[in-house]
Amino acid sequence: MFIKYAQGYIVLPGGYGTCDEMFEALTLIQTKKSLRFPIVLVDKSFYSGLIEWIKNTLLANAYISESDMSLFTLVDTPEEAVEVIDNFYQKYDLKPNF
What we know:
Layout: E1 9-11, H1 16-30, E2 39-42, H2 44-59, E3 73-75, H3 78-91
């Protein structure tokens, strides 16, 4: 239900549950089971190891495509996260429901 009404995901550092929700959202967008919305990971130092693993393992072994890397954005500040979401809705000419 989180994804059904989501207009964007801001993913803060967390554990298994956080990663589960993030990957579920990415998978549903990747497989076109959900409309695209911005997914923003906040804290480059926290997520950089995961992003490197995704590139070096999933992408390198063709488990995901290069275009799947654009399904999320990595930032450091709340202001950058808001900017990503604002830019998304300007680019796709959609209006958020909030």
